[in-house]
Amino acid sequence: MDIRFYNTLSKQVEPFFTVTPGVVRMYSCGPTVYDFAHIGNFRSFLFADLLRRFLETAGFSVQHVMNITDVGHMTEDNAADGGGQDRMQEAISRMKENKKSGRVPEGAISDPNDPYQIAEYFTRAFVNDGRSLAYKVAYEYPQKTPRATEHIAGMQAMIADLIQRGHAYVAADGVVYFSVESFPEYGRLSGNTLEHLHEGKGGRVSDQNQALKRHPADFLLWKPDNHHIMKWDSPWGVGYPGWHIECSVMARQLLESPVIDIHTGGEDLIFPHHECEIAQSCGASGHYSFANFWIHARFLLVEGEKMSKSKGNFFTVRQLLDGTATFQGEALPAVHPAVLRYELLKAHYRSNMNFTRKGLQDSAGAVKRLTEFRRRLESAAGGQVAAPDLQHPIVQRFLGCLADDLNIAAALGVVLPWANEPSSDPAADLAAFKLINQVLNVAPLGEGLPDCQPQYYGEFDEEDEAYQAALNLCRELDAARQQKDFARADLIRSQLIEAGFDVKTTREGTVISV
RNA sequence: GGCGUCGUGGCCGAAUGGCUAGGCACCGGAUUGCAAAUCCGUUUAUCCCAGUUCGAUUCUGGGCGGCGCCUCCA
Prior knowledge:
By secondary structure, the protein is α/β, with parallel strands linked by helices. The chain has three domains: 4-297, Rossmann fold, CATH 3.40.50.620; 301-440, Isoleucyl-tRNA Synthetase, Domain 1; 465-513, no CATH class. It is built from 15 helices and 19 strands. The chain has helices at residues 39-57, 87-100, 115-132, 152-164, 207-212, 245-254, 270-285, 317-322, 337-345, 357-381, 393-403, 408-420, 426-440, 465-482, 486-498, and strands at 4-7, 12-15, 23-28, 61-66, 74-76, 83-86, 168-170, 176-178, 219-224, 239-241, 260-266, 291-297, 300-302, 305-306, 326-327, 330-331, 353-355, 502-506, 509-513. The strands form seven sheets. A four-stranded parallel sheet has the order 4-3-11-12, with helices on both faces. Strands 7-8-9-10 form a four-stranded antiparallel sheet. α14 runs antiparallel to α15. The longest helix has 25 residues, at 357-381.
């Protein structure tokens, strides 16, 4: 299969290749764990998931690693001086408030002053959110999701290495900086070459710090600082690592190679984060490349606007899933995780995705259609499933679209019409659908994941009391209709609708779904 | 100002130098006690200007607009 991706490094779509044939080493920049992840984060994560699942289905063995950043970097942790507030300190303050107001479950955090407990709390929340959206690497926690704080020794080793190779130096105040002038390729990824960078502009970088650096763009590798909450001993004094070094170290260590195949992240990370990663990794390894393919997801907008807390269009995954999100003063109904996954997946990664209420409705319709198609296939096939066949024409076309720079919309344009047609060979089509669902993973959500109950859209927990009560109402409704007591039937139906169910009256009786 | 990226119908979104996906929504019909669902059918488009061409939405150039980065951010 001819696979092509847009590579930020070359700014063009180019044929995909791997360092080791058949194996993909892939690293994704993950979340910081000072708060709950929002849907913008997950747009980028699920794009990486789609990429990974596509490559796996196309026959590659994919090693996917995603970091968890828990070091407590600074709010203005720019290349210069690590100024601003400690983000972990901010998280601690928020946590104390939330604990006081009862928004944190009893026993979840015994000591809100302990940064490791804060990190643990939000890491678990992240992993749960990820798993609920069938984000595969979240199921490989903790093996494939390293924490920065567990790799401090590795970071120190790389920093020492960089100093030794002449790529880093200790400034007069003891801070270790990467010397961008020692790395001529600096700017290759972002286009922000040293000539183009605004040098220490805006007065946010203190002159004092600038004076100590050899070049204004030199960035922090280690900062001796006894006041930082999370701090470690080092050859350069007790302090904390720079923001960029963790990814260089963890990618190399967990993917067991100085050169990896794919590195993903949000577009905002291109500069300075990824630019600096390249400088560090290549500086330390001596290789020309760190990652051969840099693939970045564009930002997600909410109803056409950038998501921000002040605009009230800022949603976390859990808010949307449990129905506690509000928008423009109105509560949003709880979204089924398969629908949210589909919604965050359905737009091309290199275009702005506009997250809207209407989009969610559309996605619900599509997921429902796929779910019903699958159920039709399952019952028509009568328990038979053919062997997975990549040569199935629909699978071929589906994967072909994704091979073209992950053209998900075209791929969906293949699957959805197919799902409307009657099947001439249900067993083969079911096998094909399963292959496609390896990638989309929405019908059902979670299929193929270990320790996961595959979750169909519109499916109910049989044990649920509300569900049982609703079923009883359905029987009453059927009885009322049989007796031609339509007033009563309508009343019961409106009760069910009010309780949040979709009510359908079929020949076999009344049926409800979400 | 520098570096990128995107711009298709009411919405989401493909494809293509000429025959113009798909989904959702809407509308009409069938069906139904009424709804819903389902089935059948239909309507609406290529940001602007110039160039190349027999013909451009597709190629080229120039605008305009959205978004991102250049400062923490997926």
